[in-house]
Amino acid sequence: MNEIDLSRADLNLLLLFDVVLKERHVGRAAERLNLTASAVSHGLGRLRRLLNDPLFLKTPKGVVPTARALELAEPIADILARTRRIIGSAAPFDPRTSTRRFVIGAPDGAAAVFLPPLLADLRRTAPGINLSVRHLHREAAVAELDARTVDLTIVPLDDVPARFAERMLYEDEFVIATRAGHPFARTPTLEHYCELGHMIVSVTGHPHAYLDDMLAERGLSRRVALTVSNFMLALALVAESDLVAALPRGLVAMHGRRFGVRGVTAPLPLRRFQLRCIVPKVAMMDAGLAWFLDALGEAVRRHFEAAALR
Fold first, then answer.
1. Is the pLDDT of residue 53 over 60?
2. Confidence of residue 216 (pLDDT cuts 50, 70, 90)
């Protein structure tokens, strides 16, 4: 077998590939790389000849990767991560001086729980670290990680593909959220529960949740008077109405008091769930990201320990 001539290869082309894959747009990729759009197009041309594939196809909104480009995404990310680790070993990651930005994907109900303790810790130990949070639900978590639009996701995902590393962040359960003084708090029976107007958090707006299936098994039903797309809006609306909603206990415990909302134990068993940090395995070679995962886990652990002591 003839040895491949690596002199034809250019590590910068792999970086260009990675950025175009993330941005799905030549112009935006050029801005991120501080290049002209024509320079990016020229680099893509060299990559296409080198890899014998179109790699990215033009669309009215930008570019889309070919099947071959998607196959190459993970090994190229692996090469870049290893290269960054080698180069970065000369200047180890120092959270006290770093100005790095980490991008987290999470549903708002989880972000509202882990962000306050995390920000408090970062303010003391890593004041230059910056965060971006992308609102997403578990159905989109794997796609966002594969597209590398986020560094990590925090979602209640049980079936995590083998190419990702996972870490349990905290466990939670649903409670029935009501406004202060709501009569349901005095008589939290199943019969009373079914008589109430309900709100559910639904990304699609579909007025059906697993709780409706549980009620149907008992020959019961409820009226879903309102659906909303995020948990914090549900918390605010519960405070100003007679509607009730099944919301995460951690969310209600942290933010319910300022909204005038309390959590009532449900009159039927609601499922518990685990919020997991999920990252590509290759990314765990990144010392900065590994530190951030530890810092996040420690901040959340201390928060829940302190809450248990109250």
1. yes
2. very high
Domain 6-88 carries which CATH code?
Answer: 1.10.10.10
Give the pLDDT score at 1.
36
Express each pLDDT in 20-35 by its tens digit. Answer: 999 999 999 999 888 8
Rounded to 10 degrees, what is the CA torsion of 172, 176, 182, 188?
Answer: -120
Say which amino acid occupies 24.
R
Q: Taking a C-beta distance cutoff of 8 angstroms, is the pair 232, 108 a contact? A: yes
Q: Could you tell me the two tokens for 218?
A: 């008992």
Q: Which CATH class is domain 101-168+274-309?
A: alpha beta
Query: Hey, where are the domains in the chain?
Result: 6-88, 101-168+274-309, 172-273
Model confidence at 261: pLDDT above 90: yes
| Contacts (Cβ under 8 Å, ≥6 apart) of 146 | 73
Provide the Cα torsion 302, 303, 309, 310; round to 10°.
160
Alpha-carbon dihedral sign for residues 164, 169, 175, 181: negative
